[in-house]
Amino acid sequence: MHPRGDVTNGVTCYCLFCLVTLNPHINPKLSIASKLHLLEKHSDKNYREREIKAMAFKASILFTVCVYALTASCLTAISGEESESKEFVLTLDQSNFTDSVAKHNFIVVEFYAPWCGHCKKLAPEYEKAASVLSSHDPPIVLAKIDANEEGNRELAGEYDVKGFPTIKIFRDGGKIIQEYKGPREADGIVEYLKKQSGPASVEIKSVDDATSLIGDNKIVVVGIFPKLSGEEFETFLALAEKLRSEYEFGHTLDAKLLPRGESSATGPVVRLFKPFDEPFVDFKEFNVDALEKFVEESSTPIVTVFDKDPSNHPFVIKFFNNPNPKAMLFINTSSEASASFKSKYREVAEGYKGEGISFLLGDIEASQGAFQYFGLKDDQVPLVIIQTTDGRKYLNPNVEPDQIAPWVKEFKAGNVLPYKKSEPIPEENNEPVKVVVADTLQDVVFKSGKNVLIEFYAPWCGHCKKLAPILDEVAISFENDPTVVIAKLDATANDIPNDTFEVQGYPTVFFRSASGNILPYEGDRTKEDIIDFIEKNRDKTAQQEPAAQHEQEPTKDEL
Ligand SMILES: *[C@@H]1O[C@H](CO)[C@@H](O)[C@H](O)[C@H]1NC(C)=O
Ligand SMILES: *[C@@H]1O[C@H](CO)[C@@H](O)[C@H](O)[C@H]1NC(C)=O
Ligand SMILES: *[C@@H]1O[C@H](CO)[C@@H](O)[C@H](O)[C@H]1NC(C)=O
User: Which residue is closest in CA terms to ligand 2's atom 11?
Assistant: First the structure.
């Protein structure tokens, strides 16, 4: 089992797929195409001080995310680590960031937060890389900025920093900005940045050049041209410039130097080399968009494998970046049935090629983060789960190899009901504040005919802990009023219908009056204010007798 999150210096770092824990050589996902806003802009009001705006769980998957959590532990670790001697990494802040970037042709900036564990892991590696690269010709400058610092937050927002660490490459005085998509350990950083600071595409002049560029286990895009000029060549260079942070590019006048593919090709042709499925693909349409699409499509495996092998991890990241619905089969790859699963699953994936579903096969041993995220249990393995673009999930637990194809077909036909993550329904619920889980949300909140104040919380959230005793008091003061319910739901362990409750931070408190009027609670987090709010917004018509206890019947119509 892998750690499901580490808590250091008051920070919870979730490593969803534990890629970073397994291996620092991978390209952790740095920018998340989602609504994840770790850098919540704090406004004056109390309720705005939400610790995190991270309920992007509906739409996307993260790999490494540090989020705020106010645990009082290990504050010592910070002070222990700060006594470094000479620093090669430049420290920037809002006063000199713009100038520093403008002064450099090529500068790398890490946006970090002091509490983020992944940043702390990166720091010595980044520093070591900076010292090596300081003697590169020309020197390559590495800088950092504390994006958590009040004064720097606006900058971080401007550059769309959504998780920590986020590293960006600024070229040409800041006119061109790219995501850093390289490794996070010193040698890897050095190698990646040397390549990034050189030309976007390198000329292949010998078999040795070709061998060292292309290798066996990465995606490399090579242009074969009759001459190194002209429109096609320029188009290819523009593509290389655009995608350089993600792929390596080369060009050559001589296809015979290349390890695979037709050696008599004279071009112009783009040949993509890859370590899975067919070992190379040619493409001849020379416009940047078509080429980009070609590169994206050909560089996605038919079945992405997620296991402990680090060379697979960049593809896992690609898989989750992809906007398609995602089918994931989780099995125990060491079990006897695994070969049969693999071949059947691959058949299914091949059958849906070009139909906009991406397929991943995950090993249960490597996927604990995913299990927690989706609310899955080991005893449901082998299982298939499909996550659609709108965040819905469809689950087929304890599946047999032969059942996958028909089930995916049913899914495509719209005949499968969504699956909802829920904690078990509590057997006892006698505390003043009632525990609600996804499977009881309908009954307690929507169908009870009562006035319900519900708090969406995260177990690690400090503000939630502060609010808890206050809610207790509120609940106690309504104890003799059966028409008012004070409830709480652990939003990290239960799916919430987002069209009703927009939960983007913790705690989020909503009120639903007996007649169905839904309001966010945005007042001060005091007993008096909350009670006033309830009194003001409640319906007096609420049904008086206690509603029947619904013990089960998970509702399937809400997600
Ligand atoms: C930017 O300003 C901060 C705060 O004054 C300072 O600590 C830092 O060294 C400066 N960095 C550069 C590159 O001038
Ligand atoms: C996977 O299967 C192997 C071989 O049957 C077994 O030893 C191992 O415990 C299984 N792992 C899990 C997580 O079930
Ligand atoms: C809520 O989820 C639906 C799909 O379930 C999605 O289309 C919509 O954008 C989400 N709304 C918000 C406010 O996040």
Answer: 332
